[in-house]
Amino acid sequence: MSATADLAALRARIEQHFAADALPEGASEDVEAVLGLLDRGELRVAEPTPDGDWQVNEWAKQAILLSFRTRGMQTSELGPYEYHDKMPLKSGYAAQGVRVVPPAVARQGSFISRGAVLMPSYVNVGAWVGPGTMVDTWATVGSCAQIGADVHLSGGVGIGGVLEPLGATPVIIEDGAFIGSRCVVVDGVRVGREAVLGANVVLTASIPIIDVRGESPVEMRGVVPPRCVVVPGTRIKSFPAGDFGLPAALIIGERQASTDRKTSLTAALRDHAVSA
Fold first, then answer.
1. Which domains does the chain have, with CATH numbers?
2. Which of 8, 96, 127, 241 is least enclosed by beta carbons within 10 angstroms?
3. pLDDT of 97-124, one tens digit each?
């Protein structure tokens, strides 16, 4: 039987287990198989499609949710740290070519690519972190979030997670993006390739992203186009009690082409007076 056929059969069993009122014999082994695939990067909760869109593998999320039923609590100790949880932590970073600075934590079932750096930070189950990406101090990568290659998640960034509802798309940060300090990206928002978010930008599915580069504003939600430079903003809305500013994100420029991504990023921040 081919690997594709094996994966299809595993998927079918996970979907059956998830729909069942009581877990049948063998459910735990199937769940552990999926968690192992996620941990090794052989399966992703969401993956890019040839047309540039993203596909969510809902059955992988189902397996993660099932693990909370099939696993018991365990205590683990790492140096001076003690943990008590159902999800063990990742290990074997040296062989995987990943730099991990204490007390960074990544749970089993997340995948950290070769060349990535985890400063003291947190990566939850089902997340995927691409090669060359920096997860900076106190940044959080939520469950199932997809972080591309050569991304910089600055200090204190909060990337939201998603396990339920099952059909929901996780947060996606595409290759080469720069996410400034204390940014929050949740609700399945997609940040396009090489986009730049200035410090303190908050993006949810409902917060408007307004392109103010032209004569008239162009409003969108849930997606930051590739190479855009985005800063925090407000939009005035009238209420019975008066006029108040609600959060918005403003597209104010475009990251310039450069053979050196770091030079390009520095220029983008300087040219548009964006805090990092």
1. 3-70 (1.10.166.10), 74-271 (2.160.10.10)
2. 241
3. 999 999 999 999 999 999 999 999 999 9
